[in-house]
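2024-03-11 09:14:02 INFO worker-7 job=invfold-0412 stage=load source=structure_tokens
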């Protein structure tokens, strides 16, 4: 069976074939919304639409193909799987749609404040702390127990306690934030909070966006 995934997040669709037991894998896909197609000669082609893939998650998408005497395609538009049955990591994903919609500042540390149970050491009021780093605490962890990554690459500053990032970032460069707070993946070398900042990727259509930030002050 041929399994093909397509998405605006990909330059071109990717295809693979199933093994003897019917299993397949599409590793290292960028986050985004996908269409998954299952095709085999003599059987109906099944297409699963609206499969949302987030950072640091493995989704299991299955299909049952009926026998078909003519060319036939069945499109499934139900809810996409949201539970990663292969991982025990406690994590929260903040996707671009939420980042752009919430009436808050849009820096990574403000997004951390949206994670259930997270305590941040600053409060951003109207973007007043837009270029500041915050401490992130979960289950009593200290500021030294913070890991910052961009696309999985650790970017912590080695000075001080080691629990701070070594640079500032453009707020509009991100597609998604992944916050891991317990049962971390191997990319984390502490037991506190891992914040992985995933940058936007190109697709097969020319596009762009712009963002304007300002503070209004009443005198």
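2024-03-11 09:14:09 INFO worker-7 stage=emit residues=219
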């Amino acid at each position: 069976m041929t399994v093909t995934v397509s998405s605006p997040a990909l330059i071109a669709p990717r295809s693979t074939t199933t093994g003897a037991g019917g299993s397949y894998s599409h590793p290292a896909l960028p986050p985004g919304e996908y269409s998954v197609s299952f095709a085999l000669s003599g059987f109906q082609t099944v297409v699963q639409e609206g499969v949302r893939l987030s950072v640091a998650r493995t989704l299991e998408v299955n299909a049952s193909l009926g026998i078909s005497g003519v060319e036939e395609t069945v499109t499934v538009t139900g809810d996409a799987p949201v539970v990663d049955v292969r991982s025990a990591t406690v994590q929260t994903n903040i996707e671009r749609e939420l980042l752009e919609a919430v009436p808050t500042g849009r820096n990574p540390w403000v997004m951390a404040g949206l994670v259930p149970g997270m305590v941040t050491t600053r409060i951003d009021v109207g973007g007043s702390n837009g270029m500041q780093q915050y401490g992130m605490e979960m289950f009593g962890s200290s500021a030294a127990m913070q890991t910052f990554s961009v696309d999985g690459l650790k970017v912590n500053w080695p000075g001080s306690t080691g629990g701070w990032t070594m640079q500032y970032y453009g707020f509009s460069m991100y597609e998604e934030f992944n916050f891991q707070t317990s049962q971390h993946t191997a990319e984390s070398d502490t037991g506190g909070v891992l914040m992985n900042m995933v940058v936007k990727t190109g697709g097969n259509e020319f596009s762009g966006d712009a963002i304007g930030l300002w503070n209004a002050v009443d005198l």
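2024-03-11 09:14:09 INFO worker-7 stage=report msg="Residues 28 and 167 are 26 Å apart (CA to CA)."
2024-03-11 09:14:10 INFO worker-7 job finished
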